[in-house]
Write a structure and sequence with these properties.
10 strands; binds flavin-adenine dinucleotide; Butyryl-CoA Dehydrogenase, subunit A, domain 3; 4-stranded antiparallel sheet; Butyryl-Coa Dehydrogenase, subunit A, domain 1; single chain; 3 domains; Butyryl-CoA Dehydrogenase, subunit A, domain 2
């Protein structure tokens, strides 16, 4: 058992830490207000090999492990407490990674070099108006063969990065059913050429939602009316889309854990510094056990979350990189769901305590903690799967799939 980072991992952490403190920390308050991460910052991330770095080197990525990708997420979120830039980073690092594993060579050569350069956003679109949790019953988006390729009709909602993709270019890893009455085996995964740099693809129209946090990243939706999809944009075999989506969610979830851990660490440091210097009743707030014991609770949560997040990353690396047969996709799903559940919930506790320690100042926009609260809250609400769904995933592995509520319904 190793609880130490390797020398290479330490050097990487230092590099990302320095980068994030130099370029991200001074910038996030502006993009939190202006609702757009500057292109120059994204290009700078790409120059430092931090944009979709999990992708193979031949496509401009750095082929880094999930463990290393988590280190970057943690350091970026320490610097950007609103977590907008880390959100963009993690969506690309997870979904482009799964695309790299299962996409066609032709599509990967066309798309991934533009993604790793920061020119095309690589997003994910599964959620529909009928809901995101019960994915099997998401039936609005339908894909049909047409000529040599496919045609898609439907609607996706609550999708990250819609405004940026419309403005600058982007593609979406999209899920659609070939038969609305089919089960999970009726799903195809494919690349939606949303905006290849020359404006929205014909047949796509967009909407935007104003949400409460991570303001540097937009949330929107889009309609697809007779959108043509080239044959080579299909990801993996037809009918395997649901399984590939689950693999993508797992990759995103471990990085979400690392992101929320980083944001909580940043908030914790700010809180500790503050209560050591702020005096009430003639002594520093930190000298009151009502405060310091809360700090101890926060510290213990951080330790537990760090172990859980990096264990989940380890399980992924054992499966994908080491090809270790002891770690299956189901193990990955269980550990990454746990990281996705626990780190954001603990982060909210930690951020809330640090805010409260700041008194009225903690409730103002002058204090960075309110942005951390808003940002992290997205991951306890629903982004990349609601909290309850993480427990459904873990329960399935503990109690067996036969005890899933929807399987029980079928048995009646
Ligand atoms: C900020 C943000 C960004 C997002 N970005 C994207 C994106 O880029 N791409 C994308 O495809 N989607 C995205 N989503 C959507 C997200 O995936 C969905 O919100 C999520 O899957 C939940 O779906 P829903 O919102 O339709 O809620 P519902 O599925 O209607 O669920 C409502 C509530 O019920 C709970 N629930 C559902 N089933 C059960 C159950 N069996 N037992 C107990 N509780 C249950 C859920 O956890 C949730 O709290 C984003 C969401 C947010 C908030």
């Amino acid at each position: 058992m190793h609880f130490e980072e390797t020398d290479e991992e330490k050097m990487f952490r230092e590099m990302v830490h320095d980068f994030a403190q130099k370029y991200v920390a001074p910038a996030w308050r502006d993009y939190d207000k202006n609702h757009e991460i500057p292109r120059a910052l994204i290009k700078k991330m790409a120059e430092h090999n931090l944009w979709a770095p999990t992708v193979a080197e031949e496509y401009g990525g750095a082929n880094i492990s999930m463990t290393v990708a988590c280190i970057a997420a943690e350091e970026l979120a320490r610097a950007d407490l609103s977590i907008a830039l880390p959100v963009m980073y993690l969506v690309e690092a997870s979904w482009a990674f799964i695309f790299d594993l299962h996409g066609t060579d032709e599509a990967k050569s066309e798309i991934l070099p533009r993604v790793t350069k920061g020119d095309l956003f690589f997003g994910i679109a599964t959620t529909e108006p009928t809901g995101g949790s019960d994915l099997v019953n998401v039936t609005k988006t339908i894909i049909k063969p047409k000529g040599d390729g496919f045609v898609v009709n439907g609607e996706k909602v609550y999708i990250s990065g819609v405004a940026e993709s419309e403005k600058y270019g982007g593609v979406y890893w999209t899920l659609a059913k070939s038969d609305p009455k089919g089960d999970h085996k009726a799903f195809d995964a494919f690349i939606l050429p949303f905006n290849m740099g020359d404006g929205l693809h014909p047949g796509i129209t967009t909407t935007l939602f104003e949400d409460m946090g991570r303001m540097g990243v937009s949330t929107g939706g889009f309609n697809m009316e007779n959108v043509d999809i080239p044959k080579h944009y299909m990801i993996g075999e037809r009918g395997r889309g649901f399984y590939l989506a689950m693999a993508g969610f797992s990759a995103a979830r471990v990085l979400i854990g690392a992101t929320c851990l980083g944001s909580a660490e940043g908030a914790f440091d700010i809180g500790v510094d503050y209560v050591k210097q702020r005096k009430q009743f003639g002594r520093p707030l930190a000298a009151f056990e009502g405060i310091s014991f809360e700090g101890v609770d926060s510290w213990m949560q951080l330790q537990a979350d760090k172990l859980l997040v990096y264990k989940a990353a380890y399980v992924m690396d054992q499966h994908y990189r080491e090809k270790n047969p002891n770690y299956s996709q189901l193990d990955i799903a269980k550990f990454t769901a746990a990281a996705k559940f626990k780190a954001p919930h603990d982060a909210l506790d930690i951020i809330t305590r640090a805010m409260t320690w700041h008194g009225a100042f903690g409730y103002t926009k002058e204090c960075p903690l309110e942005a951390a609260y808003r940002g992290v809250r997205s991951y306890t609400v629903g982004a990349e799967g609601g909290s309850h769904i993480q427990k459904v995933v873990i329960a399935r592995e503990i109690f067996g799939p036969e005890n899933l509520p929807y399987r029980q319904e079928k048995q009646k």
